[in-house]
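thread from #wetlab-drylab

HS: before we spend reagent money on co-crystallization trials with zinc ion, can we at least see a predicted complex? here's what I'd submit
DV: go for it
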Amino acid sequence: MRAVMPTLLCLFLPLLLIAEEAALPIGDIIKTKALVPDTDEPKKAAPRLEDITLYEMNDSVRVVVRPSEKVDFKYDLLAGNAKDRIYIDLKNGLTADGFTAPTVAADSFLKAIRLGKREEGTRIVLDTGKVEKYNVMVMDDPWRVVIDYIGARQAPPAEKKSGPAVAGPEKKPEEKQAAQKTAVAPPPEKKEKHFILVVDPGHGGKDPGAVRKNLQEKDIVLALAKTVRRIAAKRHPDIEVVLTRDDDRFIPLEERAIIANRHDGDLFISIHTNTYKASEIAGVELYHLNNRSDEYTDKLTRVENQITNTNSFLNTILVDMTMSLYIGDSQKFAESIGKRWQDTLAPFETKIRDWRKGALFFVLVGARMPSLLVEVGFLSNPREAKILQKDKYLEALATGLLDAVAEVRKKHILAKDRP
Ligand SMILES: [Zn+2]
């Protein structure tokens, strides 16, 4: 989070129209030719389609559409029998001249991308498998539209979760071991009995996050993430920690949950540090994902989401909160970690400000697992800025976090483990 109050720009909202005609005229689609200007007067160059990035899985896809500048757009989902399609109309005369749509992987949930010229700009049509849920988000810097399509989840391998997720005498470990041997082999990268904790050190590379004097958020959260990985290896060998980055590199917000999904994570935690104008404000905050907001979380999400106006995404994200399946588990993890930290961080006099709050953090959207965003302290508070540079403090944070995760895993059957 950065220290400044976000400037409130008058962003006009993208015009979002739902329910267009069910039969979409798609015969005119495929490649376009140059738009011919109909006047001789000098005009600003039309916005162009610059990039389409695909993050493909066999049951979902995230599509990032990036024009050369912000444009008005509308979109809709058109239901078919076994297949659905979504179109997005980019307006303001946007042209896709010379743009070649990316190739779709053979086993992708996305079947095809087609581009077509429209009177007002360019239509992108995405043919997908059967869509169960979708999200549309608008992100800034650079301005882009992120669309998630999610189909029915593919059943995970039956023996995937074999750890002690259930308290009680239900089965002895040996019996469980025996049962696993007869089951289908898990994917090679997923070790048996392991709980995959995906830790996302916020920011990185060209994005330092909060900066105070010589301290940068991106460095502190990376050091903490590495500490979590190191302590897990010793203290909780059945928790496998995966980092979204383990060096100083830039990863777009929309790619981070994708990394977690590709590792089939069981919990996704994005780590940040906070700042505030009043230097006496200090403490730790844990957030799960939801779309309720108050003035404070509004400001926080604007900063962490790198956007200037929350309205520009609240209206779109409400199409569906795909993460609702995991909200209960996310809250359990947040509470457990928050309570642990009350103990492990007590010697450092750290206050746990809140673990009950939800907020709409882009980085968590699309994660198909419980997910949290944690602000581990305020760089604007001199005491916290100092202790956040100490190994002992990072170890206390890491230990509390991991012990809490292990505890939740022992006491609860998580949604991801249910058939
Ligand atoms: Zn941050």
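DV: Residues 1, 202-203, 209, 217, 272, 304 surround zinc ion (CB under 6 Å).
HS: ok that's useful, forwarding to the group
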